[in-house]
Every structure is written in C-alpha cells, then in structure tokens.
Amino acid sequence: MNKLTLTAAALASAALLPGVGHAQHHALAEYELIDRTELFGNPVASQGRISPDGEWVSWIAPDEGVMNVWVAPADNPSQGKVVTDDRHRGISNHFWSTDSRYVMFVKDNDGDENYHVYVTDPRTGETRDLTPLEDGIRAQIMGVSRDRPGVILVGTNERNPQLTDLYEYNIETGERTLIAENPGYAQWITDNTYTPRLALAPQPDGGMKAVYLNEDMTPGETFADIPSEDMLNTNIVQFSRDNNTVYMIDSRERNLAAGVAVDLATGERTVIVEPEKADLSGILVDNETYAPIAYSTNYLRDEWKALTDEAAAELDYLSSNIAGEFQVVSRTEDDQKWVVWGGAAEAPGQYYVYDRQSDTLTPWFVTRPDLADAPLQPMHPLELKSSDGLTLVSYLTLPPGSDPDGDGRPDEALPMLLWVHGGPWARDSYGYNTIHQWMANRGYAVLSVNYRGSTGFGKDFTNAAVKEFAGKMHDDLIDAVDWAVDEGIAIEDKVAIGGGSYGGYATLTGVAFTPDTFACGVNIVGPSSLVTLIESFPEYWKPFLAGTWFRYVGDPADPEQREDLLSRSAITRIDDIKVPLLVGQGGNDPRVTKQEADQLVEAMQAKGLPVTYINYPDEGHGFQKPENRMSFFAAMEGFLGTCLGGRVQPIGESFEGSSAEVLAGAEYVDGLEDVSSGG
After folding, report:
1. Which candidate in 281, 501, 569, 654 is catalytic?
2. How far is CA 316 from CA 143, 295, 352, 497, in A?
3. What are the strands of the beta sheet with 176-180, ordered from one edge?
4. What are the E-state strand segments in 345-413?
5. pLDDT tens track for 169-225
6. CB-based burial label for 374 (10 Å; 0-12, 13-18, 19+)
7. What is the CB neighbour count within 10 angstroms for residue 261?
8. Does residue 295 lie in a domain region?
9. Is 142 within a domain?
10. What is the domain count for the chain?
11. Are residues 417 and 297 in the same domain?
C-alpha cells in the first residue's frame, strides 16, 4: 500500500502499415505486424479458479466487451455462464467464499482506490455491495478463513481515514460486527478465527514494532522489532491452521529474506527456508496444517523447491508437463484438484486443472489464443553491472529476425526502448511481457532493468536506493543504456525511455537530468515533483511513510529535505528538457495525482517544449478500461514511430469509446489531431 505501481496494460486499432525509419527496418519488415487488439485488448479469459467444494470453476472474461465473472460446472467448463453484470470498467479480480456459495470481488470508483467488496450468488446472478459505505471510504478484505464459513473480515477507514478498523461481515445478510477499533496501528495481524493477535506499531525511526495484543487491543509484549532497513523485506505471512505458529518472511540479521516459523507458546524461531541468490518470493502450504511444503525464489527466473517428498513429486510432475514457469492459483478444500497457470516469454498464459488423485493435467483455457501463431520473441535474462559494481538483473527482447543465432545480440544495432518498472519497490521478471512483445514487433530492442531499490534481490540491494532518487537509481539505468550501445544492441541516438508510476518518474528524470541520452520519453502517471507527490499521498498511507518515502526519499515538511526533494524533481529542470515527451494521466489517480502532469505540461508549454498530454477522467493509477488502454498506446506507438523510426499501426479508430482528453500536443503524433478534434 506504500508503493507506486503500475502494471502494463494497453490497446487496439485498425489497418497495418510497414513503418519508415532506420534502414535496417526494411529487412525486419517481412514479419507479421501484430494487431494491437491482440496484444492489448481484453483477454479471451483470465484468472481461472475452482470452488473449495470442487463443484464449480470460474474465470473472468468479456461480456459485451466488459470483463465479468463466469461460472461453470467443474465437470463441464464449456457450459459457462456470466454471473455478473458490470457495464463500466470491468471486474479485475475474484475469489470464492469458503463455503462455495458466493463469488466475491473488490472494485473501486473510476480508479480512486476506495474499494468496496461485492458478492455474487452464481445461482441467481444477484450481485450486492457488501460494504455500501459513503464515498471516500475504503474497504479492504483482511481475512477469508475456512474456519469461519459465511463470514469475512473487512477493514474500513470510515472512523479515521488513516486507520483501519476491523469488522466481520456476514456474507448472506450483509450484517457487520465491530471486532476492533484501531488505536494507531499500521497493520493488524489476525489468526484463522479473525481474532487480532498481533499489530504493527510505527516507530520514530521508520521501523515497526510487532506487538502482541491484549484483550482490550492495547499493545502487549514485543513479538518482533523490525528496523527500517528491513521494512520492505520482512513481513508476517500467516498463522498455522491451529493458530499456534506464525510464519514470516524475515530479512533481519541476514541479507536475503528467509522463511521463518515462530512457535507462539515458546517463542522458538525455526528457519525453514534460507535462499541463496534471491529473496523468498512464494510459498505453497499444506492445505490442512498451512505449514510450508514448497517455496519459490526469483533471481533470473522463478524457481520452485520442495520441502517434502510429496511436494517434490507434485512439482516434478508439473514442471515436466508445463513449458515455462507455473503457479498454483486455486485449490479445492480436499486438495484433490488444483488450478495451475503456466506461461513463458513467448506464451501469454495457459490454465490447467490438475487432478492429483488421477495424476492428470487437463488444459483448460489460453488467455490470448490469437497470439498462438504470432511472432512472439524470447526474453533474454541478463546480469549487468552498475558503475559501482552492483549486479542489475535485466531483461532484453529483440525484434524477429534481428538475432538469427539467438545469442541476445542483434546483427545490427537497433533503436531501443528502455522500459522502467514502477514501484520503485517492485521488480521486472522473466515471462510474457506485453510491452516487450509489442515494441519488439515494431522493430525495437526493449530493455528492462532492476535498478537498485528493486525488491527480491536482498535488503542490501533495496537499501542501496536510500536517498538515490535521481541519483544512483538513475545511474543504473544509464549504465544499462551504455552497455546496450557498447554491445551493439542499441543505436546511440535512437534510445527512448518510458514507464509508469516510478517508471514515469524515471522517464522525467531521464529527459531532464540526462537529456543527451534519450531521443524521447513516455511518462505514464509519473510524478514531476517529489514534494507535491508526497504531500498528496492518501491518508491511509500516512502510517507507512516514515519507513518508506521519508527514509528513501525525504520528508517535505523538513526545509532542508524539501529543497533536496525539489532538486531531484523534473519540475525544477524544465529548461534542460529538449526532447519530445508523451504524458498519460488518470484523472482520479490517488497515488500520483493529476497535479503532477498538469504542472509539468504547463511548464513545458511555457518554454515551447514538445509535449503531448492525454488525460483520462475515469481512470486512476493506470488504465483499466480497454478503450482507454487502446487509445493511449495507439498514441504511444505513433509517438515512438516518429521519434525512433519503428513500424506503426495507424491510430485509426483506437480512440473510439475512450474518455481520452488530448490536452496538449496533438500535433506531435501522426493522426492524433484528427481524433482529438473529433475527426
């Protein structure tokens, strides 16, 4: 909840056109140009699930062009029917109640992140808002336990916008019962009966103290001191089924986050998993005891390791029958059937039903079957070196035909897009990446870098980002670009930078602080001023700011730190920008508010600098509606085609049905003036 994140999503269009630009593109133009609708339109289906009783399967798929929940008998998935009726932004998540009676999902209002919890009876199709709270109130699901069927635990901030109070909600009746008012904790930790057992209390140094709770919810003895340097790599995951053991991911007294079990009766700590190259990232638990039986780490790729002989046999079976990586995403209560997702860089995703009793793995559905024969390209995991010696795990994708021997080096240097992940406390990973495949298909090399501050590589790597916004965090990106140029991958004067959220900030830093490195930039919901960014954060982020934003970046309430924050912000370096910029913004974004884009564009226009600005009044931190995704990425493709010379599918009808407001610079993107003027 203290991250700036954005997952890549995007868009559609019309006719195909071989692009113009760098001479090498004539050789590359022979391969198929993948239509944007196939890459960025709604998937055919996604998020496969199985009900706890094993009677039903469910998934999310379009109904009249809007993503809704579908349900079918588990023994006949082809008999699916849509059970929700969203006609606006669509549903992006769902899960089953533990008694298998209801499908549930959370949804906000046009991206404002004030979520409500909704419940649907799949037999009748009736959908109810289980948390019909006033506007501006946020509801969070805090617990879904098989030991409390028919009841879920929900946190709301209606009493105090900064603090979460706990309520039990009866799913059938909607009746709620107050469990605990929050006296000032940053986070509750409840057991499988929804009883609050522990809480995280913020400390002056930015760390947290995990405390046992007395019956009146006042703090008792300390369970764990979590220093600020461990805040992003240490958390309490869950209780054992009998509620006597707590399982943690813990980086204290070590660099890589390990898996630890704590006996609540004796206080004894047992290290279950101690990774060697990357933080513990995933855990598979015994379905009855909740004890870990397997774990995953993700260095260059995601890798699973078993902790029991039975789990080893299961993982071996799945890895032998699924190409690429896999995840167990849903299980029946008796643990006889699993829903498993599998995917790879050249495969967007396949869902399977794994019957453990009969030892069969049945393909269920492919998320984007239209891409089955498309010229998708391999992703090359890399270990680059920063100028001060850090290892930067990175990923490179090249256009079809540019790398005949498959060594990750094109025969000739290419225009390149440096695509920067959001967060910044997140990471890039191996696998199918829409932006990588789209841009490679248009003739560009695409490089993504896990710069210092990225998570998953140990707390030393994460903490190397303290006070390094627009400093060494950006140096890592420049080092990666220099490497790509030196290796003959990128044409030196044909490198663009882009990204969302922190990636947008990195884009603005790139064009303002290192203007000679990049030919242009694409900023999606990125902050132009670290001061106004932090000052506008939602109230419910306030308990976490000391250990994250204040520690890593600075506190704008301190005059000296405020000056430093401004010096690391593109808004104070407008005069140094000299390349074109494309800006995309969600009008309801609570993390990076519209003010960030408005003040940037206004300042650039005042200097006569080339900037194109598209706002979406019904979006938040990213673009969820497919029509909005379609329009922005159609503009982005044309923008980069002009800047870098890659192939371009015309804008065509890509703005049809979107809420796009082209507020500046339509003249800088071919075809944008026509749609912005209603033509």
Report:
1. 501
2. 32, 14, 16, 40
3. 139-144, 151-156, 165-170, 176-180
4. 347-355, 360-366, 379-385, 391-397
5. 999 999 999 999 999 999 999 999 999 999 999 998 899 999 999 999 999 999 999
6. buried
7. 17
8. yes
9. no
10. 2
11. no
- For the chain, helix (H) and strand (E) counts, in that order, are 13, 36
Task: Establish whether 589 is a catalytic residue.
Answer: yes
Structure tokens belonging to residue 563: 């000056």
Catalytic residue among 110, 380, 621, 658: 621
Which strand (E) or helix (H) includes residue 436? helix 434-441
Looking up residue 550, the CATH number of its domain turns out to be 3.40.50.1820
Provide the residue range defining the domain that includes 590. Answer: 25-39+401-676
Judge contact between 526 and 500, C-beta under 8 A.
Answer: yes
- Please write the tens of the pLDDT for every residue from 86-100: 999 999 999 999 999
Extract the tokens encoding 229.
């340097």
Alpha-carbon distance of 475 to 387, in angstroms, equals 8
Report the C-alpha gap between 153 and 484 in whole angstroms.
50
Residue 629 has pLDDT above 90, yes or no: yes
Same domain flag for 284 and 405: no
Q: How far is CA 244 from CA 238, 239, 241, 267, 665, in A?
A: 11, 7, 8, 10, 61
Q: Are residues 439 and 291 in the same domain?
A: no
Which one of 307, 340, 374 terminates a domain? 307
Q: Does residue 603 lie within any of the structural domains?
A: yes
Model confidence pLDDT, tens digit, residues 474-515: 999 999 999 999 999 999 999 999 999 999 999 999 999 999
Note whether 423 and 561 are same-domain residues.
yes
Residue located via tokens 């009969």: 358
**Residues 415, 295 share a domain:** no
CA angle 451, 453, 454 (to 5 degrees): 65
Do both 410 and 535 map to the same domain?
yes
Tokens of 445: 């090399």
Tokens representing 231 are 């805040």
DSSP string, 606-634: HTT--EEEEEETT-BSB--SHHHHHHHHH
Q: Which of 636, 621, 632, 214 is nearest to 423 (CA)?
A: 621
Residue with tokens 């109130």: 137
* Marked catalytic residue, from 402, 589, 654, 676: 589
Final residue in a domain of this structure, among 307, 334, 354 = 307
Question: Is 501 one of the catalytic residues?
Answer: yes
Pairing of strands 269-273, 258-263: antiparallel
Residues 6+ positions from 508 with CB-CB distance below 8 Å: 521, 523, 526, 527, 528, 570, 581, 600
Residue 146 lies in a domain: no
Catalytic site includes residue 191: no
Its pTM stands at 0.94
Amino acid at 165: D
Residue 116: HSE in the Cβ half-sphere, 13 Å Cα cutoff:
17
